[in-house]
Amino acid sequence: MAADQPRPGDLLINDPILTTISRAAFALVMLFALLLLWRGHNAPGGGFIAGLMTVCALILHRIANGDSALRLDPVKFIPWGLALSFTTGLVPYLLGRPFLKSDYGYLTTALTGEFEWATALLFDLGVFLVVVGAGLALAYALIEVEPNELVEGDS
């Protein structure tokens, strides 16, 4: 494509309706993803679905604000998530307990009162990081392919 022609993904960048709606939708989806991540070890939800919701919110943000809106390398999240999840399972094993044995307790703060914490949240956070990293890497790879561009393997 010529340098002066817009790319297909750039056509919606200056749309004020999409930009405004995407801000509110981004905030709501991210709050819901945080809730799913926080409650996932005791209720439906968890790192996987919270990661998928986050990927959807970040893709919407990138579509509404252009390619330069979110400059991060999502692949870097994957090893951190794997390390966190593996460490969450390894620590109980090294202490003579079953692998991935979850511990829990209660913490009291002035702001929230008493709430339960669990090490399963750390495992869910690791899964969350892996899903966000892999999902964004896949989405970015699909977004960056031009419609008329031949990909390796195409004839």
Characterise the protein shown here:
- With 155 residues, this protein is mainly alpha-helical.
- The chain has one domain (8-143).
- Helix content is 55%, strand content 8%.
- A two-stranded antiparallel ribbon has the order 1-2.
- The longest helix is centred in the first third of the chain and has 24 residues, at 16-39.
- It is flat and about 55 Å long.
- The mean pLDDT is 84.
- The chain crosses the membrane at residues 20-38, 45-65, 77-96, 117-143.
What does the overall shape look like?
Answer: flat
Number of helices: 4
Question: What is the N-to-C succession of helices and strands?
Answer: HHHEEH
Specify the helix fraction band: 40-55%
Poorly predicted sequence stretches spanning 5 or more consecutive residues: none
Mean pLDDT: 84
In the residues, how many domains can be counted?
1
Secondary structure: number of strands = 2
Q: Beta fraction of the residues? A: 5-15%
Q: What is the CA-CA span between the terminal residues?
A: 20 Å
| Main structural class | mainly alpha
Biggest sheet: strands side by side, in what order?
A: 1-2
Oligomer: single chain
Rg from C-alpha positions? 20 Å
Main β-sheet, in a few words? 2 strands, antiparallel
